[in-house]
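Predict the 3D structure for this chain.
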Amino acid sequence: MRCSVRRVPRRPSRCRPAWGLHNRWGRHRAADWTPTSSVPESTRPAVADAIAPRARDRVSTEERILAAVSAVMAREGFAGLGVNAVAHEAGVDKVLIYRYFGGLPELLRAWGHSGRFWPRVQDLLGDASAALLALPAAERYARFFDHFIDELRQRPLTLEILAVEMQQRNPLANMLDAEREAWGTEATQVLGGSDFIQAPYLNAITLLLVMGVQVLLVRARHTPEFSGIDLRSDAGWAQIEASIAEMARRLLVPPPAGGGAGQ
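Done. Predicted structure below.
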């Protein structure tokens, strides 16, 4: 005898998921997803206002972390510098250092690029950069060195790092070398321009001046006077700046009409 089984018709689903997706294992149905473009325009400013403080908080936290690098290095030197020490100094979880910077090498690179160690070219040009760049080459050259000397004199941590570099190398010094190389290239392009092309010897002279300023400032930490010049006084450095300006006027002579650069 054959048994017949009565099939009960399936009731149609009232909410059939779009694109054949289902939420059997907790997946979100495509129908539940709302594209950004479908958010009412009236609510979009509120979303933007909610995101803006997060961006500001990140910038503020990054600044605190970079400032902490300076504080730790000034107090403990490169040997005491580490992610944990910087995080403790900044009052943040070290996870944020990895999230925002990637790790200690990247953090140090960002610190070097921030202008805390070495003055950026834009810092040396000042607020009236267009006016400075419009000056004659000799005056522009002299003003640049005035600003460079003033900036380095205000950076005791930079001078400490330079003093250590002269005695021994470390990973930080290698990173900062790359930063200064990029700085030198930018400074030459911004300040030198065609003058450096026409008088290539200026590149080596500028190198000697930049390095000489660093050595004198480092020396002044322990030896206040050199060759009769007080390296700890404004008057002593004003004398050095005046000498650089006079040298620039003699070297960067405007070329005669139709002629080459003056020698």
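DSSP finds twelve helices and two strands in the chain.
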